[in-house]
Amino acid sequence: MRKQKHLDDLTAQAANLGAENNHILTNINHVTQLYLNVEADNSVLRAQISELNHRLKSLTDIISCMRLDGAASPGFDDYDHDHDQMIGGGDDLFSPWSLVHVKQPIMASSDHGFMY
């Protein structure tokens, strides 16, 4: 009788441990999927960083060339600054934080959302 009780207890414990293992495995699979989604998003963001750094370098090079050309040519500053200010300011090209005409929205994929 004692051996049967002990066997029943061990069988119940094995069933509980099996259920717990299945629950842990399900959680691991879910977290792994979330991790892969985050890694994919990070990969996209790294590519965007690289592209934006390249664009920034190109724009900086263009600005440097324009400034060098402007210093070399005497008529560079002979345009109507007042008219330029009325249509949005002529200094936008020389201020990297106000490049309104260069800004493009960054699109994020909604299919990689987090589930809680």
From TrEMBL:
Could you tell me where this protein is found in the cell? Nucleus
Annotated GO biological processes are: positive regulation of DNA-templated transcription
Keyword tags:
DNA-binding, Nucleus, Transcription, Transcription regulation
- Entries under InterPro entries matching the protein: bZIP_plant_GBF1
Spell out the molecular function terms from Gene Ontology: DNA-binding transcription factor activity; transcription cis-regulatory region binding
GO CC annotations on file = nucleus
Q: Mostly located where?
A: nucleus
Q: Which CDD domains match?
A: bZIP_plant_GBF1 (cd14702)
The name this protein goes by in its record = BZIP transcription factor 44
- Organism source for this protein? Sesamum latifolium
